[in-house]
Amino acid sequence: MSTRLSVNINKIATLRNSRGGNNPDVVKAALDCERFGAEGITVHPRPDERHIRYRDVLDLHEVLTTEFNIEGNPTEAKFVDLVLKVKPAQVTLVPDALGAVTSNAGWDTITHRERLIDLVGLFKDAGIRTSIFVDADVRMVEGAAETGTDRIELYTEPYAHGYGSDRETAIAPFVQAAIRVGELGLGLNAGHDLSLENLRYFRQHIPGLLEVSIGHALICDALYYGLENTIQLYLREAKA
Ligand SMILES: CC(=O)[C@@H](O)[C@H](O)COP(=O)(O)O
Ligand SMILES: NCC(=O)COP(=O)(O)O
User: Closest residue (by CA) to atom 5 of ligand 1?
Assistant: First the structure.
């Protein structure tokens, strides 16, 4: 089974927004990512629009030909309306805290069960595949399964953080979670802080990994290797 690479282009928008204007052009960059081999494009609009703007999502939707994955916090009505309007291939529900620098935890799928059931139903009725962002915790995976979601996305920051010092210990809860995902018949995605250094080991130890979404490290690597080479390097790790 091959794991698909979805390139998160938030950081390209961050660079554009730092000067105003349209350089780099986010839509062109996304199309180039696709041309260079990306199998999907991920965006994670936030209420402050500090990187991807809601307008970008509409523009991207017009032109992308690979899988479009929109991530974000569904407690924002604006986010829900945007996703229902665009109808991407996949929506990933993330419990972002307002003001957080980046996503820093998965859902408590037990506490938020009823809300997640409603949201998953809403998006699935619109023909959108759903994925719920969760920590590598079997209880949270089981809670996610009860919402009716198609997939879960494992929050991989703790793995990435622990990889350098003790990768066997770092991957262990992710293996357990992935096995449970498979038993429950859900699809499995993963992301956050995956990199050229830690991706191959993750891919080789996690059963049934359908998709990784990678942004920060990939765009940093592109400064050195160029976007086309970098996407090829990540594809090699994702397929290893
Ligand atoms: C859910 C997730 O892990 C990513 O979408 C990540 O949060 C990227 O968001 P930022 O680019 O805002 O850090
Ligand atoms: N879902 C994770 C994602 O889209 C990218 O996260 P990161 O690679 O920017 O940490």
Answer: 44
